[in-house]
Batch of 4 targets.
Target 1
Amino acid sequence: MLGSTHGTLTTDSRRARVLACGEQRPGPAVHGRTGDPAGTDDLDVSGRPLYADVPDLDRFFRPESVAIIGASDAEGRPNTGITRQLVRWAERVGARLYPVHPARASVFSLPCSRSVAELPERIDLAVLLVSDPLPVVAELVEAKVRFAVAFASGFAETGTDGAAAQERLAAAVRGSGLRMLGPNTNLNAFEPFRDDLDGPAIALITQSGHQGRPVYALQELGVRLSHWAPTGNEADLESADFLSYFAERPEVGAIACYVEGLKDGRSFLLAADRAARRKVPVIAVKVGRTETGARTAASHTGKLTGADAVVDAAMRQFGVIRVDGLDELQDTATLLARARPPRADGVVVYSISGGTGAHVADLATAAGLRLPELSEARQAELHQWIPPYLSVANPVDNGGHPVGDWRGRKIIDAILADPSVGVLICPVTGPFPPLSDRLVRDLVDAAEESDKLVCVVWGSPAGTEPAYREVLLGSSRVATFRTVGNCLTAVRAWLGHHRFVDGYRSPFDEAPRTPSPSYRKARELMRPGQQLSEHAAKQLLRTYGIRVPREQLVTSAAAAVRAAGLVGYPVVMKASGARIAHKTELGLVKVGLTSAAQVRDAYRELTDIARYEEVELDGVLVCQMVERGVEMVVGVTHDDLFGPTVTVGLGGVLVEVLRDSAVRVPPFGEEQAWDMLAELRGRALLDGVRGRPPADVDALVEVVLRVQRMALELGADLAELDINPLMVLERGQGAVALDALAVCRPPADPAAP
């Protein structure tokens, strides 16, 4: 994706075309880090923010004063256990704690205030143990409390009435200076975190507390955890706020997320952009790949899960690493938090068994990892210690015996010394002491002296062996896994993350801030609430510099004949009307017409069919016939979470048959447009197959970028755009939009709230 050399344009010339949409600005430091563009309130051409504010959550996670509203020490009451945990937590973080209850003089021997107004000082954090937090929120606002946590459930996750109640809660907080976590959240933010662990930490964001437990438990394996944000329904504070905050924390090495739905797609992408600028990896489990998962997730937190293909593309676009299982989340987040940047992307598989090595090498190659063949000189060196009949090209098979003596360390050092090697993966399918004990000790010692990544897959189901629990888990330099699959997933993510961030340029820096000259002309063509005719849709494309065929709109057979002469035979004739979506199925397209007689007959037949089908026409299009090329589709749709999205794929009849397409969320640069094409299964068609010449892929990318500009400038007013087919001609000859459909959003209801 980065450092691409597609086509004939240089990187600088491609960059110049993208930067024409808006200039990049350097800016001030935030939280001691540089690189933010100036003016964090900048808006793009459609009025949406381009940069994420970073909320100051220091007093949330490390408050000096805490109030518990509804505190209790009565045995058997649910609030008592919560109060007890909060008392212990406040002691650990050094916060002054104030119980609040109208009928109690003290709680757990602490003096109790009867109301928020009676609290002796300004409160940093108020924890609401009440069933209806709304009245209390008003008191907190009056008292200028900084943060609140609302545990109560029964809000958006329960349906329409609950969503209305949640909106009232959000409205009470909005703009007040009080920031609120929840409702429908839990105590995870106040868990005890080990303070005896060092090194980069994992910060955790979850919308289901139970789903964060596996990552929290990593502390038992020596992995540091710095924060846990259980966001719940996100009436106010949302995942994006914590993502932005964690990205600025110097102790955070990776951010792990369990996401069921997003409150606002744009906010999430702005936060992911901030993390990418800071080179902080974000690893996420996002529920909703299936209809069942999406429905269940929506019922849990009351948020939109989004179309999964769009969510997947958007995360990939901004460097968020999506994994499926919580075990993958554990392993991938741990590796990315703790491993140094790669020195090379080559992977070597090293084992004591040829079968094991071949199996893991096969899986690694299938996972997209590069396994370079070691040089003849390196192989000769390895054969000093490994029998000559064993293969050491990669994978490296040592036969077993060398790991039991001094040769084992020599072999590992030689592999790590190879400049093409960045990762050594050693699968240990089961313990075989004393050889396995010596092997892992050599691997740990070598890793301590190397700047290369050493990974060990410990395959024992017990996991109680000293070699595993004491030696491997005792090392901060060896990445230890329990399954080969998780190891390969994590290594691929680690290499991919560093490739991504090393050349990352934020698309928000390059987003247009002012309308182009095309915008005003395009607005004049829009018809709110209507589908444009093909002719009008093509005029819209033409305003943005997208090429359409020579054509004329006519209303008589005689005019059709004259138009054909001007356009040039052979011609295509098509019925044109605002309510025609699928002309071919209705017989409203005639191709390959080569004479005036054929044109007259075609005109009469098209108008007769339209009358029979009761289709209203604004005329008949007489079009230039474009025969040879690759049929593609480029379009715009609106996603509930992310707004306008741009799609490119194989076009014509292949759209519905193969469903081979790629999607991006604007804004994006030209590199991302090229990446969209690389994702297509039918990408080879553009390179020329079975003797056909290569297509003009540069022109196709140009169309994608121009369509993106339309989507950004026209915003939600352009509900849908479908260019199908876009005929991509031979290299150097451009691309032509042969058909187009555009749907305009209905006018806003002035009576709507």
Target 2
Amino acid sequence: MTRLTKALALAAAVLITATAAQAQSPATPPPPQAVAPIIAHVDGGMIAGKSTGGVAAFLGVPYAAAPVGDLRWRAPRPVAPWTGIRPATTYAPVCRQTASWITEPQSEDCLYLNVWAPAAPGKARLPVMVWIHGGGFFGGSGSQPLYDGAQLVRRDVIVVTLNYRLGLFGFFSHPELGAESPDGASGDQGLLDQIAALEWVQRNIGGLGGDPKRVTIMGESAGAISVAALVVSPRAKGLFQRAISQSGNVGLPFDPTERAPFDRTAAEATGLAFARETGAASLADLRRLSADDLIKRPWTPRAVVDGVVLREDQTTAYQTGRRNRVPILVGWNADEGKDLAPEVLATSDFTAARHPALIAKLLGRPPSAALLQAYPAKDDAEAPAAMFHLVSDFWGWRIWRWARLHQAKTERPAYFYYFVHSPAAPSTPCGYGCNAGHGAEIRYMFDHLDQDDRAWNAEDRRLAARMVGYWTNFAKYGDPNGPDLPGWKPFDGSEGSVRRLGSDEEIAARGRLPDFSLFGP
């Protein structure tokens, strides 16, 4: 019997008391849908979540101490215990960030997670899906409505979402950090937060009906990059058994030739320069500055190969066997370039004259004649579309390389997808993630078509059902296949081992994979 099941008695007592009070006040109408309190015990003490429609939600649960004051930029510390029953029915503040699309309250005190689970768990423990949000490591949160896990719980899984430190607070290196850390870590605080959340899951999810031996990490964009990093991080060993990476694997060094931008020494030099600009002579001085003062200063967050959280590039980790041996499910979307090109190239000025130089910036080398021929920009009118197409395919190539490496160097399977579906247009003009754009797949795999006011059709609903089936089957068995689903072969490098996600017409029109050899081996 789980701790959650044992706690139902206490919740029942609360409900009986509430029912008796309502009986004495017949004029009070019942709510349209009953929301029942539900109690559980986790690190730190008792929490009271809510149960709606058979799904229990525990929101704003602390998984680590507040990283404020002297704990700013340190590895996450254990959560402080509390007395009584802590409410867990509303989301906690999100981490401090510069993202313009986030309107939720922000705080440095942000290391909280959210759990959705069956309100009345059965005897069998359920697989756990831990979602790591995207946002370029500078924005986002685990409480965005699109990530609500209730729909997936109805497919017999448990869902966890989390906040992690972002921007300057989550990806900052400094020589004094390495000196004060017991293991010499300097940077990657956001990744350490994700690891701390996974450790929380290992300690606590059994009490909520989950199986700590069937944990799937999954994420999109920066969350997908995080998943790729955790697969090769020694600090994450044993904390998960499967990994899903959606449109990621770009913000990490793939092989030794790509190490320079992620070098710890360079990152610490950047941190020292930042400190000098603020007038801080030491790390202690930086910690005394307010978050408001720090966050207004420019900062580009990125993961760092610090020798602790990340020890090496992906290829070396796979070749030496120093990676977590788990099956992976990875892929990308057909129209991501329009969303990503302005971000990764730091410009919106796509002209024919600048086309070769921008490609060289993306690849880190001059483009070949064959590549320029495949993505031609004959004039300024043609240049933006050519660059968007190229960036989409470049994104896919990075993920394709990871799948090939995984398939060649481990006995665990990889499953590769290509999302080509264009949803119905929104009621207001689409500015980001349009068609099969960046993040377009999320509403399908979380089964949240209901959150958008669009003219959804039978094909949209069919695709959502398939993706939910594939994703939850992978969490349950390490294999996305199941009854009533088109077969999905393990990836072997062939076109036939790639699962296209879209209608038959869309797959026929645009499902052919790019010529990845144009980008490299």
Target 3
Amino acid sequence: MEDEIRPLQKRLPFGLNFERHAPEAVELAGHKIRKGSKVRVLAPRGSTTQGDRRLWQVDAMRGDVADISLLDSSEGESRTLQSDDLILVAEFRDWIYPGLRPDGTVERGGDKPFHTVINGENFHVLEQLTFTHERAVDAIYIDPPYNTGARDWKYNNDYVESDDLYRHSKWLAFMERRLKLAKRLLNPDDSVLIVTIDEKEHLRLGLLLEQTFPEARIQVISTQINPQGISSGAGDFSRVNEFIFFVTLGDAELTKWSRSMIDNDKEASDVSKDQTVRWADFARYGGNAGRRNSPGAFFPIFVDIESETIHSVGDAIDWGVDPATVPVPQGTRAVWPPQRPDGSDGRWRTVAESCRELIAKGYIKVGPYNRRSGRHSFGYLQGGAVAMIESGEIRVVGRDEKGAVVVEYGAGVKRATPKTIWTLSSHDASRWGANLLQQIIPGRRFPFPKSLFAVEDALRFYVQAKPNATIVDFFSGSGTTAHAVMRLNKQDGGRRVSISVTNNEVGADEQTKLRKEGLRPGDPEWERWGICDYITKPRIRAAITGQTPDGKPIKGEYKFVDEFPMADGFEENAAFFTLTYESPWRVSTDRAFSAIAPMLWLRAGSRGRRIDDLSKGWAVAEAYGVIKDLDLSTDFIAALKLEEDVRVAFIVTDDEGRYQQIANEIPGIETVRLYEDYLRNCESNGDF
């Protein structure tokens, strides 16, 4: 057996190797501790240490006192402590039963759906979203930790330092767990994942994306975000760029825009103002341009010598036939495909019959006679241009003296093909990220926010043609993605919605200061300085209302694609939530409906009234309905039929037969059984 095993041990699988089994857990400040909970013991107030890093289990609760015992210990150590001295811990292999606690709204969008912001550990929120949005998301945009070693992210509640030997392994395990859940959210038939990263991890990220999304098409963009540059050290290049991975699934394809994304490119200006239509060369060049690749495309075009118009088109000739022996109509010259650099015969773009059809429509035009080469060149309109003529986007305004059509783009129609290097000044993260954030929420700092316009441009390529798209950002930080989606909606009247996920982590330096003041995670005075409460929610609220957190009009104007005062705000709605951790027993016995209710509203499209009360046995809102008293199903079904845009009906029952009976009476509407479907979804997670 040793002889057989030894060669196998020497083999390494292709691709990334990292510690997938490395445990990951998160401390959940402010969440309720129950019997059976996993906890850690907090450091004494006033201490700057982290406290006991071991995991304990709660054996009993007596009011505010908890009896705890050490997990995975043969010594049987136990303690009795105040619950305030404990913090709830969730390991990522554990099943969780998520709920949502409403934290307010801002409403200026009438009947438009709500953007949502969820304060919670993003891995657990992603698990929750697999119940509300599985296979339903059009785009995910994330700006994950760059793993610079500068205490910019945590693994197992500890900052990952630059000297950590397992730094890259931890980052890969951290990302893979979340990307696998993100994949479940994306519509496999038409969606995109957009990930930004810098040089520290972009090579490993590329391999990880290939392994996680083997069926996807992946492109990477280099984008200039800091024209001034940052040098890592003496003798290094000054870095001005980072990278964007575009992972496209199914039929997803980019929608061309009016910019090429390169500032010094001839298309850098708004090409939509240019009405010139490009005519392609009718001769084939490059690879597969030889006669052998398409024998039917080797034929003569006869040009009238005097008028330089196309007289007729000959037929393709057989191999071995000398072109010089082909009869030439009187008064014309024969033009054959140009020879290739190696002296072999070339070919035209189409076969002879297709060429005749193009000429009849005026879609091929003749260039002047070149005495040096003894031939004419030909331009033609390619399939895309022809399709745009048929759709009316390109107008035929006449014909030239040689019979070819004269064409021009309609106003605002022309689009540029975006390049894989972006150098737009609007993507400067300092000017349009950090400085812009200061205009919106003055005095509040957030490290390295993205340029609002950079996020807007990246999303535009894939959601411009989807006015009802759902966009998720589970590293939402300062809320730039939600802000960008609002701008896209304003530009075309769209009803796109964003789901922004962030925790309420307090910065490393601020934590030390707060600990010295005797504060601990979970204290209101601690939590108010967290990312979600101090940055994300205020930024989104300010963007919509046009007012800073102090109630003053935001100074300045939005630039580039559309320019208007920031104080105008947006006609949008937003709802804020905090992730909660529920007991499966309370859920299954219908004692946790208030926590599950926002998830039902999210699944129904986050629009209209939210059903928070079932005291009458059932309720129906604009987008969905919920029934728990099945004896009232007749009234419930009648109410559903009165609503034109109901999307889903939730039926609370343990009886599969009665569920099916009612579901069969509700045609054309998705039905979901509560709480069976919810619990089953929760227990299908936790395998990461």
Target 4
Amino acid sequence: MREIYNLNRKWAFTKQTDTVPSELPMNWNWVNLPHTWNAIDGQDGGNDYYRGTCYYAKALDKMDLPVADCYYLEIQGANSSADVYVNGEQLAHHDGGYSTWRVDITEALQRENLMVISVDNSANDRVYPQMADFTFYGGLYRDVNIICVNESHFELNYFGSPGLKITPEVISNDARVEIEAWVSSFKDGQKLVYYIFDETGKLIRKTETREMKTVLQIDDVHLWHGRKDPYLYTAKIELLDGEEVLDDISARFGCRTYQIDPERGFILNGEEYPLRGVSRHQDRLGLGNALLPEHHEEDMNLIYEVGATTIRLAHYQHDQYFYDLCDEKGMIVWAEIPYISQHMPTGRENTISQMKELIVQNYNHPSIVVWGLSNEVSMKGDRDPDLIENHHILNDLCHILDKTRPTVMAVVSPCPIDSPYVKIPDVVSYNHYFGWYGGDVSMNGPWFDRFHEKYPDTAIGCSEYGCEALNWHTSNPTQGDYTEEYQAYYHEELIRQLFSRKYIWATHVWNMFDFGADARSEGGENGQNHKGLVTFDRKYKKDSFYAYKAWLSDEPFVHLCGKRYINREEEVTKVTVYSNQAEVELFANGVSLGKKKGEHFFYFSVPNNGETVLTAVSGELKDESIIRKVDAFDESYRLKEKNAILNWFDITAPEGYYSLNDRISDILNTPEGKVLTIKLLDAIIPKGGKDSMAGFEMNEAMMSMLGGFTILRLSGMIGTMGVNLTKEDLLKLNSELNKIKKS
């Protein structure tokens, strides 16, 4: 019988060598898996986290392993390329940091063994991702096992496959379930026994055969129906020789039908089922991507609490444990590969292998409904023939490997809607940040209306939208201020615009959690993207979290916004309450300020005198906060960039003249300003070569988006694209702007 031997404990680790050791190095550091070497330097800013080859070594006595004919080393995640050595012999190389892969180590094992795994997250031009707004943590960051099996066993060599493929088809009230298996060294006299169990473990179907594919029927099938009823069956296959069970495998599955309708949105089991949810990255403060099951569970519980019906698992394959949680909780999942930001002509084979692994390893999950081809990969233009061909190859591959699920793509905002590239997948979504990266929040809904009017037969979704918030505060929120109040305002507006358009097949907030992006230098806390509804450490739910909970969750609650914004200078201040109840009453020091009825967002004008205890009440529900009158604005609430090249208060800004603190769109209104801005963009966006921004397409839509930025804010963001401006560069530019009169 199959046995799994876990190898997570006590590996020797080092960054300080470039050779495979011949014996266990006792002077290396001892670590347990999961492990990443970028848990600290991948989150502290500077874009200087270690990217290179590191080594893990472990002594292994074969006598400690279960007795078996064959032994397979299983690596569930090594980012991003890895080599396996057993007793000095190189057995395998793998490219791709987010999937499971296995190595047959049977012949290489001796009584005493030295196992070495080199892992490399160095920059290169063949393994995705290479350019993206998140940290590429290096390490053996998921479980490592040895799978011990009989000579005859279910296949372990095929792209990390679980060994069985389950395809349920709902027909009227029943389900036809096709189960396919692959066996290595299948011998005469051996047979397969297929089982289906219901959720309680009761056997409902069984058959014996030598065929690798069979069909079993479930009468009066219990459908998997998202969060409302995530009912799971289990398929099991035994490999028998006579009465002896040589190997067995199993997987849970769900029976459901769905379609993505260009007018009605997502339809699950014949019922309109709006997909309103979030995206997720797989990292945490101080841990990087080396997560334990309890971390995945906490993430799922928070996503479930906010009321999300869908998760975009970006921008790569996530842990199998999290996909299992999605099945159990009834989440509708977008799964994708890290073909992102920058197309690499030398990376085609890697996109193909990562897509094969994604589909083969995750085919059985009922939660997954679309395969994502790429994300914002047309940043440098949508007309590259090699890029187009790469997408067609991936799209065709998806349909060959999985005839049941459509393909999708997350398109960067400025990409023209009539681009042939946009028409490749079955459905499409756009990443839009109007109101944060330029533009205005009011532009989001109308953009989708224009797309829907021009292409009424194409299902359109919003795969990313969001804005950043830290512990900065104001009573007058504006785009780019990084306050919790602006983030709340932004999401209120986006909820109203996106949720009211039924034809938008799915919406995914970017992001559920703040995440590591070491190249970032903005918002006052470098090395992170702060667009999360929840902080990086999962300790604080921002006000915007409760805006979504008010719209999406059935769990009764009331939430007072602005709990971290206590000191306020105005005589009368605005207080917002979020709730999924029909009516809310607000009390100030026990005195009622009145009741409000409405749809989830309730606004009150509150006299600000001395210290006031605010209490929001709806029935038995209540929430409290405090505000305090101060004479002047509390400067601790104002954004201060950490280790910034320049801060806004360091810049000379003569009255009536431009400075780095002015918006690019305003500067472009003058001939001198236009010349200066174009000169700047030409300098930071190379036209060729290997620079990460080389060939970046500056079309009209991109210019319109950039117009909403101040030059100072833009300078703090372009580090994520490999461009660095010095203090001298900015001061010189500001001096030139100071000579240009405002129009």
